[in-house]
Design a protein that fits this description.
Aspartate Aminotransferase, domain 2; 7-stranded mixed sheet; 4-stranded antiparallel sheet; binds pyridoxal-5'-phosphate
């Protein structure tokens, strides 16, 4: 019995999604295409196994193979980032952040994170998230003119708030993060520093972005963005005492049985990321973003901070007089997937926004290079100039499909 015969509805929906992923330009900055090896581990029989606890200390029998897999994942992750302790069980980036908080905070404690409309994540203290409901959350923003973090301003707010945790690391920030500066601010007010490197993990692992390991007290990340692994999270630290607290916060604190099939897939991803080929890949991701953002700039698109140092860029659409939501829809009609995103000083709600966020991680995995980036920027410009012209958008979609055919997943 297989999926096709057992459950045709789900089979067909997966096939349709496979086609969508193959035939469109995936430019959501937090997405990527995993290798077949990662996919195989994620879809393996390890999903059958309960393994509450940690290697050598499980609450279930039959964990010999699981222990081996989880230990390999931990050792590879430690090598990849050069950290002393790692927990690979968080089901997601949000769970990793929740466990990191619970390791060092009590409900009602103060946290200081970047505001969501400035590129922060929900779990950095947004009121609609557990992080803003269980803790007293405060925010810092970015300079509305430059789009950059104003470290003096963060220091000023930190001194006023005196938080127990400062959170740094963002969902939509196109420039390097100065972790040492954040450390200075945290030290000044006696706060723990957590660095959430969900977006830039691949860049940090390969040396294209300074690392927060040994600088921040705790480092969290997702494994499915630039790191190109399965959907999941991990937590790292160099502090043995904190490592023990983090382990307890993950299990039994917030999770039960770990997803060992995903942990195996994480281990495969870390092995891949340790290879020289992965460093080459990340170099191409950044190079592709340079070409894409330069071309967009020449086509009169306004880029927040005037460009990008990493895998993502934010386009401010106010000079084009179109909203993020409308541009997202029109691009989708042309086979280009992006997400609407607030820009500095945005007066539109998060459901509309004045910008979009774009990334090159997934396109680069397909093997696309500078020539494709240039053409994609031109196609995006054609979409912006023909927002309501269904025929024109369909023509662009056809060109997108042809381009994608040359770069199979
Ligand atoms: C900076 C950052 N942290 C955490 C997360 C949460 O990850 P997940 O969606 O796996 O919960 C994201 C997701 O976009 C993110 O951008």
């Amino acid at each position: 019995m297989n999926l096709k015969t057992e459950d045709k509805e789900i089979y067909d929906a997966i096939e349709a999604e496979k086609k969508r992923q193959a035939e469109g330009l995936e430019m959501i900055a937090s997405e990527n295409y995993v290798s077949e090896a990662v996919l195989e581990a994620a879809g393996s029989i390890l999903t059958n196994k309960y393994a509450e606890g940690y290697s050598g200390h499980r609450y279930y029998g039959g964990c010999k193979n699981i222990d081996e897999i989880e230990t390999l994942a931990i050792e590879r992750l430690k090598k990849l980032f050069g950290c002393k302790f790692a927990n690979v069980q968080p089901h997601s980036g949000s769970s990793a952040n929740m466990a990191a908080y619970f390791a060092i905070l009590k409900p009602g404690d103060k946290i200081l994170g970047q505001a969501m409309n400035s590129g922060g994540h929900l779990t950095h203290g947004a009121k609609v998230s557990f992080s803003g409901q269980l803790f007293e959350s405060h925010t810092y923003g970015i300079n509305e003119k430059t789009g950059l973090i104003d470290y003096d301003d963060v220091m000023k707010i930190a001194k006023e708030v005196r938080p127990k945790v400062i959170m740094c690391g963002f969902s939509a920030y196109p420039r390097q993060i100065d972790f040492l500066n954040f450390r200075k601010i945290a030290d000044e007010v006696g706060a723990y520093l957590i660095a959430d490197i969900a977006h830039i993990a691949g860049l940090i692992a390969t040396g294209f972005h300074p690392s927060p390991i040994g600088v921040a007290d705790i480092v969290t990340t997702t494994t499915h963005k630039t790191l190109r692994g399965p959907r999941g999270g991990v937590i790292m630290t160099d502090n043995e005492e904190l490592a023990a607290k983090i382990d307890k916060a993950v299990f039994p604190g917030i999770q039960g049985g770990p997803l060992e099939h995903i942990i195996a897939a994480k281990a495969v991803c870390f092995k891949e990321a340790l290879e020289p080929k992965f460093k080459e890949y990340i170099g191409q991701v950044i190079g592709n973003m340079r070409v894409l953002s330069d071309t967009l700039h020449h086509l009169d698109f306004d880029l927040v901070t005037d460009g990008s140092d990493n895998h993502l860029a934010l386009i401010d659409l106010r000079n084009k007089d179109i909203t993020g939501a409308d541009f997202e829809s029109a691009l989708e009609a042309a086979g280009i997937t992006v997400n609407k995103n607030s820009v500095p000083g945005d007066d539109k709600p998060p459901t509309i926004t004045s910008g979009i966020r774009i990334g090159t991680a997934a396109l680069t995995t397909r093997g696309m290079g500078p020539a494709e980036m240039q053409r994609i920027a031109e196609m995006m410009n054609m979409v912006a100039e023909n927002m309501d012209d269904e025929e024109k958008l369909a023509d662009i979609k056809e060109e997108v499909r042809e381009m994608c055919k040359k770069f199979p997943i």
